[in-house]
Amino acid sequence: AAARPEPAGDVSPSRFSGVDLSYITQGERALQRALSILQLHTSWQAETTLDAGAAVSSAALPGLGKVFRAEVVLAVPVARLHRELFERIEQMPQWNPSLSRVKVLQRLGTDTLVTHEVTTPSPGNLVGQRDFVSVRHRGRRDTAVYLVGTTTHVEPLPLQEGCIRAESRLSCIVLQPLAGDPGRTRFTWLLSMDLKASATMLRGGWIPTSVTNRVLPQSQADFIKHLRRHLSATARP
């Protein structure tokens, strides 16, 4: 049976508009989709990118294409990671140089956000700047926290000058305390994105799938490296 995280406790239809409820529904559906993937007995293939102690693997899944899974154990408790990755999401560009801006456009209850993220150009401008408009949603089950994100088109933000509007098909970070050591966290991250690939323009425009498949696992490894460095630099004595 599919594991279902605890539902948000403050979501009442009378509190939100129809558009607001559609965002919440998008987030909840993304979470259920991620849970179904996590429970699949899928054959994940190891990727060549292994950095910051993270193992990155991939699998081709119906409706999503190639999904990358990064796994690592971080020497901080779940609550600290949860705070950095959800509650303090707008501060992420301060420690993650791949992001130039993260803005929360809407907060819907305590568990759903609508965000706008702008990347920095990759080295050599191979990919160029992308931006994303996403619904982010969190759920909890037992001691685990699930942080999911997916592109939304409900009320699209105008295109940003110099950016290509990319899409996050699905992102899900699972934070689980390590058995017997609640001060450490098993961090699992599922990621599927459309950077607007499969055409021939490389510089700032559309990029081939082969480049996307190289960039995404590297971006996961880089994110974990920057996160670990940030957590170490801001650790309390």
From TrEMBL:
SMART domains xref list: START
- Database matches in PROSITE patterns: START
Coiled-coil stretches are: none
For this protein, the record's SUPFAM superfamilies field holds: Bet v1-like (SSF55961)
What GO cellular component entries does it have? mitochondrion
Molecular function terms, GO-annotated: cholesterol binding; cholesterol transfer activity
Q: Where in the cell is it found?
A: Mitochondrion
Where in this chain does the record put each START domain?
A: 44-236
Q: State the superkingdom.
A: Eukaryota
Among the GO biological process terms of this entry, one is: steroid biosynthetic process
Q: What is its main location?
A: mitochondrion
Q: Which UniProt keywords apply?
A: Lipid transport, Lipid-binding, Mitochondrion, Steroidogenesis, Transit peptide, Transport
Pathways involved: Steroid metabolism; cholesterol metabolism
Q: Tell me, how does this one assemble?
A: May interact with TSPO.
Classification via PANTHER family: STEROIDOGENIC ACUTE REGULATORY PROTEIN, MITOCHONDRIAL (PTHR46489)
Specify the protein name.
Steroidogenic acute regulatory protein, mitochondrial
State the organism of origin. Answer: Scopus umbretta (Hammerkop)
